[in-house]
Design brief:
Strand order of the largest sheet: 1-2
Order of helices and strands: EHEEEH
Structural class: alpha+beta
Number of helices: 2
CATH class: Alpha Beta
CATH topology: Macrophage Migration Inhibitory Factor
CATH architecture: 2-Layer Sandwich
Distance between the termini: 30 Å
Shape: elongated
CATH superfamily: Macrophage Migration Inhibitory Factor
Number of domains: 1
Largest sheet: 2 strands, parallel
Number of strands: 4
Strand content: 15-25%
Radius of gyration: 15 Å
């Protein structure tokens, strides 16, 4: 049973997450030759103030709005 865990900064829409789950599941099924119902998919979301690179929080390192491209749509 393949288990896919996607970790990303919070802010994507429900529709974006739905499409991501569908596409990744479809490709896991194709590549690993397993049934779709065998594929588990989880998204872990983190606020930017909880994500750091090289010891610096993204909220400080990149400033407001960084990493939010594609999150402009209203959350469902």
């Amino acid at each position: 049973m393949p288990f896919v865990n996607v970790k990303m900064v919070a802010g994507r829409t429900l529709e974006q997450k739905r499409e991501l789950a569908e596409v990744i599941t479809r490709e896991v099924v194709r590549i690993l030759n397993v049934k779709p119902e065998w594929v588990e998919f989880v998204i872990d979301e983190y606020p930017r103030e909880n994500w750091a690179t090289a010891g610096q929080l993204h909220a400080d390192k990149y400033g407001p709005g960084c990493g939010s491209q594609g999150t402009e749509e209203k959350q469902l």
